[in-house]
Recover the amino acids of this structure.
């Protein structure tokens, strides 16, 4: 039977379960719950337990669900990188567990239930369909930080190492910071340049302030004597690039990046990634997650599109950038959706199309 966790003792047990689970991740953690609640979203944790003489002994299945309110009192339900499961369970157990959450979501005005699992779902009888969105990236690169710094550099592509040296040679300086406004300004510039919508500064602020382990690194360009004189009344120079990341359970995660196009030749973004790896390694991390790249199975299509001057995937540029840092590629199953109220969702889509 599916149960909603609520008490501090239950949440503590859940924390131990997630952090010891082979597929446990930031997105199913209590830390993520804290951050999502700071954003104004409701978060619920559902579990199914094993019992011995009416006494719970351990979790069999769990799902952290992020509930986001939409129009007309409706909501979307999202299970990011979950559910987590005991690998001994049958497909029927998975289907029953997700089926109960589906019923609860539907009874609570849920319009859709989204799942972006880290491994394939054993839920063939559920009405899963390909999700129209991509809340979680399709694949990532993981850097092994247990190696020496020399070994981490050695496993990078030659271009990655070269661009790090270029930034160092030009005198780019990376510092830990709390200046979210400076990062947000860079992010807005990056969004305009690359034609996407950046989150508001408040989102970055809540990420840094509410997510345990979050950190901000800012890169500054070289300062000439003339610039030092001109900036004498402004002792804090403007950064040319920034990186917002977090540390969870021994893994450093690169989350947001931004840069100033005018200073692109200084290669500050490359040095930022290297400094972030060193920062995470110094804080006890064994891995560094570059977070999002194109699905490897699509790589050939990207190359064909570029050779024919067609529009490539929105992931193509960032995929090439992250490739320079090496690491192991990890691919995730495609995000799935269970539409709970198909008619209402269809009508809302028509409304948004007409308004847009």
């Amino acid at each position: 039977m599916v149960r909603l966790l609520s008490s501090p003792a239950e949440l503590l047990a859940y924390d131990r379960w997630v952090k010891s689970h082979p597929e446990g991740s930031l997105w199913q953690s209590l830390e993520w719950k804290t951050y999502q609640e700071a954003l104004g979203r409701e978060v619920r944790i559902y579990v199914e337990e094993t019992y011995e003489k009416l006494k719970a002994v351990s979790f069999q299945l769990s799902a952290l669900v992020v509930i986001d309110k939409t129009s007309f009192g409706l909501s979307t339900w999202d299970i990011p990188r979950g559910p987590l499961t005991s690998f001994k369970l049958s497909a029927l157990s998975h289907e029953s567990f997700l089926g109960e959450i589906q019923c609860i979501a539907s009874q609570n005005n849920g319009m859709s239930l989204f799942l972006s699992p880290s491994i394939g779902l054993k839920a063939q009888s559920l009405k899963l369909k390909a999700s129209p969105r991509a809340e979680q990236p399709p694949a990532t690169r993981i850097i092994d930080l247990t190696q020496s710094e020399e070994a981490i550099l050695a496993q990078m592509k030659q271009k990655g190492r070269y661009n790090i040296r270029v930034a160092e040679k030009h005198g780019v300086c990376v510092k830990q910071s709390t200046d979210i406004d400076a990062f947000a300004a860079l992010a807005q510039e990056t969004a305009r340049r690359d034609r996407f919508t950046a989150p508001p500064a408040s989102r970055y602020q809540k990420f840094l302030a509410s997510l345990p382990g979050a950190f901000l690194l800012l890169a500054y360009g070289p300062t000439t004597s003339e610039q030092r004189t001109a900036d004498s009344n402004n002792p804090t120079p403007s950064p040319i690039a920034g990186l917002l990341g977090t540390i969870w359970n021994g893994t450093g995660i690169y989350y947001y990046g931004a840069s100033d196009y005018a200073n692109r030749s200084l290669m500050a973004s490359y040095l930022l990634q290297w400094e972030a790896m060193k920062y995470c390694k110094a804080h006890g991390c064994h891995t560094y997650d570059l977070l999002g790249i194109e699905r490897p199975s699509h790589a050939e299509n990207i190359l064909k599109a570029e050779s024919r001057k067609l529009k490539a995937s929105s992931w193509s540029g960032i995929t090439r950038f992250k490739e320079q840092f090496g690491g192991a590629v990890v691919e995730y199953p495609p995000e799935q959706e269970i539409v709970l109220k198909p008619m209402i969702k269809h009508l809302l889509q028509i409304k948004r199309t007409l308004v847009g």
The mean pLDDT is 89. The first strand starts at residue 3 and ends at 4.
